[in-house]
Amino acid sequence: EEKFSKMAIQDYVTFPPRQILEKLEGSDPYQYADVIDTIKAKVLSTVDDEFKKAAESKSYEQSKRHLRNLASALNHLPEDMKKHFEHKLKEDQENLEKKWSDFKEKLTNLARNPSADAYDRLTRECQEIGDQITLSEIENLIDRDLAQIRKNISHKLSEKQIKETRGEILNVLEYVAKLSSSFERIKKQHWAGVEATILGGTRKAYDSFYVKFRNPDASLDPQVLKNSLNEFLAYGSLQSKLKDDMPDQGLLLKIMFED
User: Fold this and answer.
1) What is d(CA 178, CA 163) in angstroms, rounded to the nearest whole number?
2) What's the predicted TM-score (pTM) here?
3) Does 150 or 28 have the greater pLDDT score?
4) Of the four listed, 28, 61, 108, 186, which is most buried by Cβ atoms within 10 Å?
5) What is the pLDDT of residues 203-246, one digit of tens each?
């Protein structure tokens, strides 16, 4: 009796309540009636507590672990007690799997149609229940999407399509605004990478123009000098428009030019 008062549900595999109760009831059910009732009450309380833990757990894996404990424990209970809990266990297992399946479906849809708003909504849902596994999957999808956006930006810059990068840059900034508080890498890695690319491109364009302008070469085609200037000015225009687009983001792409 004292042993059962301190026993966790996982211990039912080693000390099966069914065997102990059958032994007591087979010896003298009247003599051990109080002990039998106490053990049954303790077992019922322990099983109920495990169901409660499964329902209140903040992640799929935690809930799954508690339900596994219950499934194992029920096999070591008296038949009437086992039947009492079997339906609830099955129902809770099905509800958990459906809930997880819904999350997986949302992740699949996000992978097909990514957006900062959709990521933000699902992230908040996962944070409310403490689902770290799904949050990790969301972060991996965000990393994938932002890596592709950064690749697109770099490609356009290499093709001198400077002004055309504005949409992608604003897209990254939207991710920063809505998700960087949940996923630090968005700002520290991805936005820092975009910022470095723009700053580096601006510096390179300025240096290219400055060298050509300060060291005129008679053989230099005037159109080349004009193109170099236009490239530099395009970077300046891009930064100016970005500051207007996102004034609240602290987008201060400052370039310090030396004489």
Assistant:
1) 24
2) 0.64
3) 150
4) 186
5) 888 888 877 777 766 566 778 878 888 888 888 888 788 777 76
Tokens 């509800």, located at residue = 95
Contact 135, 119 (CB under 8 A): no
Residue 245 neighbours by CB under 8 Å, 6+ apart: 166, 170
The DSSP secondary-structure symbol of 187 reads: I
Residues 6 or more apart whose CB falls under 8 angstroms from that of 16 comprise 76
Q: Which amino acid is at 246?
A: M
Contact 83, 109 (CB under 8 A): no
Q: Tell me the C-alpha distance between 53 and 47, whole Å.
A: 10
Q: What are 157-162's contacts with CB under 8 Å, separation 24+? A: 157/197, 157/201, 160/231, 160/234, 162/201, 162/231, 162/234, 162/235, 162/238
21, 36 Cβ separation under 8 angstroms? yes
Taking the C-alpha atoms of residue 92 and residue 65, their distance in angstroms, rounded to an integer, is 12
Joined together, the tokens standing for residue 84 give 């009492």
To 10 degrees, what angle do helices 222-245 and 166-179 make?
A: 30
Q: What is the CA radius of gyration of the chain?
A: 32
- Assess contact for 14 and 75: CB atoms under 8 A: no
- Asked if 75 contacts 82 with a C-beta cutoff of 8 angstroms, the reply is yes
